[in-house]
Design brief:
CATH superfamily of the largest domain: Type I PLP-dependent aspartate aminotransferase-like (Major domain)
Radius of gyration: 21 Å
CATH architecture of the largest domain: 3-Layer(aba) Sandwich
Catalytic activity: O-phospho-L-serine + 2-oxoglutarate = 3-phosphooxypyruvate + L-glutamate; 4-(phosphooxy)-L-threonine + 2-oxoglutarate = (R)-3-hydroxy-2-oxo-4-phosphooxybutanoate + L-glutamate
Structural class: alpha/beta
Function: Catalyzes the reversible conversion of 3-phosphohydroxypyruvate to phosphoserine and of 3-hydroxy-2-oxo-4-phosphonooxybutanoate to phosphohydroxythreonine.
Bound molecules: pyridoxal-5'-phosphate
Distance between the termini: 37 Å
Order of helices and strands: EHHEHEHEEEEEEEHHHHEEHEEH
Strand order of the largest sheet: 2-10-9-8-5-3-4
Pfam families: Aminotran_5
Subunit structure: Homodimer.
Pathway: Cofactor biosynthesis; pyridoxine 5'-phosphate biosynthesis; pyridoxine 5'-phosphate from D-erythrose 4-phosphate: step 3/5; Amino-acid biosynthesis; L-serine biosynthesis; L-serine from 3-phospho-D-glycerate: step 2/3
Number of domains: 2
């Protein structure tokens, strides 16, 4: 299939990936690095794959300037498993963790944490259907960690900067939908987790960046694969890892570097989001659902105010080669997911469709 036949994919995840990464992967499925064996067929113990895995880690470290006292490794189970695995490792019935409740994913993380220890919900934006990032946060006396969702994929809100973390605690973030969309100061965190399928690659692999002393503090009573130290200390090779996903993640890291690194992709993401939000503000038919100071640069949620018209617009866009725009059922309307790999031309196409639709049906 020619890349010219590709359409603009606004899917929230799995999501659009850089075309050069897809092309290189297509070749590597038949023969990776001239070995005569495809990437999905190599032993994970082979020299070829171990070099790829080490290369993925090295590329990740370079991109985000990750210091040596942090582990970088790859696990399975998605962010949803991490909702439970984090408290399972670091929380006990005599400890408290503080959670910032900014959407459906945060709520799921809170639910899991309650199984293992005390949870203080330090703030919540549920009163207005999660359309903003709360400014006032009320921490407990001595939380073990503070957990937040850096970008709320479903509601289209995003922390502009990471929240303050009380002394003695460490930050844990679910960065699944904005990881490496902008520079990140890893040293502010105890643990970062991100499912790959929004900004980093295909579904099935989850990136973990974790301070070594935090990993060491984890429970030793858990089944082997649920202790973070297992994959951290084995370089992600304790068991068979998602080899294809790790390969593609490596290519995505290299692609980001080729784009100029995190600051450069952040600039492009900012420009795309600014353009789209400006068009929404200028429209008399469409309006954004998130508060202006909380808007996400990865997922823009918007509505016409009429569910039938929303559905009509989604269909209108589909006819013009744009897919994945239907909003999540908890917000309704439309959601344009515009991750790192989303092309500028797709933003222009959406804005043009908004104008034409408004002229025809507004
Ligand atoms: C998509 C997403 C998840 C869920 O990821 P799974 O891989 O399906 O478990 C969790 N958190 C955030 C912020 C997400 O965007």
């Amino acid at each position: 299939m020619a890349t010219a036949d590709r359409i603009y994919n606004f899917s929230a995840g799995p999501a659009t990936m850089p075309v050069p990464v897809l092309q290189q992967t297509a070749e590597a499925l038949i023969d990776v690095n001239g070995t005569g064996i495809g990437i999905a067929e190599h032993s994970h113990r082979s020299k070829t794959f171990t070099a790829i895995c080490e290369g993925a880690e090295a590329a990740c470290r370079e991109l985000a300037n990750i210091p040596d006292d942090y582990h970088v490794f790859f696990v399975q189970g998605g962010a949803s498993l991490m909702f439970g695995q984090v408290p399972m490792n670091f929380l006990t019935p005599d400890k408290t963790a503080d959670y910032l409740n900014t959407g459906s994913w945060s709520k799921k993380a809170i639910k899991e944490a309650k199984l293992f220890g005390n949870v203080n919900v330090a703030c919540s934006s549920e009163d207005r259907n999660f359309c903003y990032i709360p400014k006032d946060v009320s921490y407990s006396d001595s939380p073990t960690y503070v957990h937040f969702t850096s970008n709320n994929t479903i509601f289209g809100t995003q922390f502009a900067v990471e929240p303050e973390c009380p002394d003695g605690a460490y930050l844990v973030t679910d960065a699944s939908s904005d990881i490496f969309s902008r520079p990140i100061d890893v040293t502010k965190y105890g643990l970062i987790y991100a499912g790959a399928q929004k900004n980093l690659g295909p579904a099935g692999v989850t990136l973990i960046i974790a301070r070594k002393d935090v990993v060491d503090s984890g429970s030793g009573d858990l089944t082997t694969m649920l202790q973070y130290r297992t994959q951290a200390e084995a370089g992600s090779l304790s068991n068979t890892p998602p080899t294809l996903g790790i390969y593609m993640m490596k290519l995505v890291f290299e692609w980001i570097k080729g784009q100029g690194g995190l600051a450069a992709v952040a600039e492009r993401n900012e420009a795309q989001a600014t353009k789209l939000y400006a068009a929404l503000e200028a429209s008399s038919l469409f309006s954004g659902t998130a508060d202006v100071d909380s808007r996400s640069k990865m997922n823009a949620c918007f509505v016409t105010g009429d569910a039938d018209k929303d559905a009509e617009f989604v269909a209108f866009c589909k006819q013009r080669g744009m897919d994945g725009l239907k909003g999540h059922r908890s917000v309704g309307g439309m959601r344009a997911s515009i991750y790192n790999a989303f092309p500028d031309e797709g933003i222009d196409a959406l804005i043009e469709a908004m104008k034409d639709f408004e002229a025809e049906k507004g």
